What does this fold into?
Amino acid sequence: MGNISKPLAEELIAKGHSITVISSDPEKQSAIEALGAEAAIGTVENAAFLDQTFTGADAVYCMSPPNFTAADQFAYYEKLGTSYADAIEKSGIKRVIYLSSYGAHLPLGTGFIKGSYKTEKILNAVPGINLTHIRPTYFYYNLFAFIKMIKTAGFIAAVYGDEDKLALVSPRDIAAVIAEEIVEVDNPKKVRYVASDDSTCDEIASVLGEAIGMPDLKWKTLSLEQMMQSLLQNGMPENIAFNYTELGLATRSGILREDYEQNKPAFGKVKLEEFAKEFAVVYNKQ
It folds into this structure.
C-alpha cells in the first residue's frame, strides 16, 4: 500500500469504519487484508470494476497513481478522471474525496499538475455529489531523489533553489486530513490544502545537511537549459523532462502556490526537523 493509503486505512479502521482498498497488484491482497480491510484487485482505469467496487459505499477516496511510462501523461489523467466520474455517477455514491495537488487551480504552466487540474474539472461535472479536492503541497519524500546528487556532487540543485519557498507535506498529515474529510457530509469544503511546514530551499538544505553531517550543504538554482540537459543526459524521456522542468519553474516563479497562499491551512504535525531524521536514515543506507 502507498505512503498515504496505508496510514489512512489504519486510521479509518481504528475508528471502526469498514473499508475497501483498491490495488492493481494481487500480491498486495494479503497485506491489505492483514490491516482489516477488504481488498479489491483491479485497475482504476476500468470504470465497470470501479462501479462494482463503489456500489454500496458511503464515501470514496480517489487518486491518480503515477504512470511515467504513459506516452501522453494528460490523456492518462483524463482517462482515469473519466473512469472515476462514470463509476461515481453509476454507483450513486455521494461523498467523494480526490487527491489533487497544489497548483491545480491553473490550467497551464505547471507540468504534471495540469493533469490534476483536468481531473478536478471532470469530477466537478458529476452531478449530485459532495466533492472535496485535497491539494497537498511538496511531498517530503520527493527530497529523497536528491540523495545521489548530494553524495556525488556535494550539493542539491534544481531549476528552483536558494531562497525559493517550498511548502512541504508529510503523507501522514495528508492521511489525517483525508480521514477527517471522508466522514464529513454536512459541510464539506470544496478544496482543502494540506501542508506540514514551509521553508526556503536554503533552509531545507541546512536542516537536511545537519542531519547527515554536512552542515554546509547548499541548494543551487539551475537554469532551464542546465536542468533539461541534466535530465536528458540521465535518460529521462523528453516529454517527462519538459513537464518536470515546467513544474520546477512554476515553483521558482511562485505561481504554483498562489492559491495556496490565499487559503493557507494550519500546518500538520510532521515538521521538517522530524523528516530530516528519516532522510538521514535513508541517506545512510544508500
Summary: The chain has one domain: 43-285.
